[in-house]
Write a structure and sequence with these properties.
Number of helices of chain B: 5
Largest sheet of chain A: none
Order of helices and strands of chain B: EHEEHEHHH
Number of domains of chain B: 1
Strand content of chain B: 25-35%
CATH architecture of chain B: 2-Layer Sandwich
Number of strands of chain A: 0
Radius of gyration of chain A: 13 Å
Distance between the termini of chain A: 45 Å
Radius of gyration of chain B: 17 Å
Strand order of the largest sheet of chain B: 2-3-1-4
CATH class of chain A: Few Secondary Structures
CATH architecture of chain A: Irregular
Number of strands of chain B: 4
CATH topology of chain A: 30s Ribosomal Protein S18
Largest interface: A-B, 42 and 38 residues
Order of helices and strands of chain A: HHHH
Shape of chain B: globular
Structural class of chain A: mainly alpha
CATH class of chain B: Alpha Beta
Oligomer: heterodimer
Chain lengths: 73, 151
């Protein structure tokens, strides 16, 4: 029997408001190829995942986080 | 009915300070009347862009928060689009209350001396730590970003 710690939503747990200008937060929820990490990996709840996705897309548009990793450019 | 908005503008970082102020003043004038206290301006200064925009590696970020009529927003966006020195503009309706102050902020000196700081911190971090953190340390780690936000 493998015990896995239950993943919890970072935003619900800590009452963090998702802000598209928070570059370091957006970084944490994208992988090294700049892709949005799925809920199953991060444990984010559905509501916050939707808001996070919007925030990441806004952050990309504003060149705060990359669309693609540097080496792909 | 007036609504609250937040606009992020990215200006060409090679712009003269006086020209920059003039352009910003003109855009602000399109949104709110002179002396309107609802507008707050946050200047992030010059930062390295995550990817080049029109062959430019750096941009000067300005964040405006204000209450205005939707009609005035149309004119503002038209002016901002026509201006070639405005590299990006993004307007959000009903922005959230928390104000992010980037780790590399430079509210005192917008364009002049802040050029180096953002470059060092912004580009290196994402690739290194992004994949593992949320999954493995979701309960312990989050306190840090949360604290940053409040500061």
């Amino acid at each position: 029997m493998v015990y896995r710690r239950k993943k919890t939503c970072h935003f619900c747990e800590n009452k963090v408001v998702i802000d598209y200008k928070d570059q370091h937060m957006l970084d944490r929820f994208t992988n090294d190829r700049g892709k949005i990490l799925p809920r199953r990996v991060t444990g984010t709840c559905a509501r916050h995942q939707r808001r996070l996705a919007t925030a990441i897309k806004r952050g990309r548009f504003l060149a705060l986080i990359p669309y693609l990793p540097d080496h792909a450019l | 009915m007036a609504r609250s908005y937040e606009t992020v503008l990215i200006f060409d970082s090679t712009l003269d300070e006086s020209v920059f102020e003039q352009k910003l003043g003109r855009l602000k004038g399109a949104l709110v009347d002179d002396g309107d206290e609802s507008m707050t301006v946050t200047q992030w200064g010059t930062r390295k862009l995550a990817y080049p925009i029109g062959k430019k590696e750096q941009g000067t970020y300005v964040i405006l928060r204000y209450d205005t009529e939707p009609d005035r927003l149309v004119e503002f966006e038209r002016l901002a689009k026509l201006d070639e020195q405005v590299m990006r503009q993004l307007t959000i309706v009903d922005p959230i209350e928390s104000t992010i102050v980037p780790a590399t902020t430079s509210t005192d000196e917008p364009a002049a001396t802040s050029t180096d700081e953002p470059a060092t911190t912004s580009t290196d971090e994402p690739a290194a730590t992004s994949t593992d953190e949320p999954a493995t340390t979701s309960t312990d780690e989050p306190a840090e970003p949360g604290v940053e936000v409040q500061e």
